[in-house]
Known about the structure:
The protein has a single domain (6-257), classed as Clavaminate synthase-like (Double-stranded beta-helix, 4-Layer Sandwich). Helix 1 crosses helix 2 and helix 4 (139-150) packs across helix 6. The strands form four sheets. Strands 1, 2, 3, 4, 6, 13 and 15 form a seven-stranded mixed β-sheet that branches. Strands 5-14-7-12 form a four-stranded antiparallel β-sheet. The chain has six helices and 15 strands. It is α+β, with helices and mostly antiparallel strands. The protein binds fe (ii) ion. Fe (ii) ion is lined by residues 85, 95, 97, 239. Fe (ii) ion binds at residues 85, 95, 97, 239.
Amino acid sequence: MEKLNVVDLHNEPYRLPDLVVRVRRDLSSVGYVVFRNFSRGEENVRELFLELCSELGRLVPHNHEGNIIWDIKPRENNTSAYATFSEHNQAAFLHTDSQYSADPEDYFGLLCLQSARCGGGSSTLLALPHLLRELMRTKKGRRCVEVLQKQKFRFVAPSVFAKTRDAKYVEHYILKNNCIRFRADTIEEGFRLFPGYLLQEAEAAYYILKNAIQNSKKIIHFNMDNDDLVFINNATVLHGREKFEDKQRHLLRIRMKVD
Ligand SMILES: [Fe+2]
């Protein structure tokens, strides 16, 4: 199994500039980094998180109200499988964030305030270089990569999934310049709403990729404990999580653009 890239800050005195350097370095090489004991007992953990993210890039609001810090918590009465993953407690298949927007964030951080105490909710990560190496081993996989780099797909925004052609979507490559944009349900909703938009070969290539992601030997599984902070490169690492029951599970997310 892949080893987790993790740093325990418990007994390690650090300065903010050192953390910034470490995150930047790891996000461009490994694609993610996990910090254990991020706040080291400090109460102003939200501010510490915000301060670090502000140094890493331009902060990207989550909505029109301009909220920079987003609470990831199951919302009462939200049972829709097409709701955003941050608002329900179901499993989230490996994906990148904001794949249905014109300009997805480059990085994001997730800070765990309250881990799931039910034993569920564990996190998964899969780095694109590993996935590509697995695909390039077979002729079918190589062809799949070639097709996905040439063909734009329609990614339908989950919040406005509709039965009509009025659905909001963006057209983009799934694979381009060693970056990935992927979320199975937003892509498959595009197949359903726009039949005939794609050649059969492109749709088949998508399912080969999905299968390769699902069965990758390089998926990392880990549990986020309270005060753990993970930073993820949204263009090179897929992330997901298992289903959980504990409605008190609570993470904070901050998105960043590196201009
Ligand atoms: Fe996500």
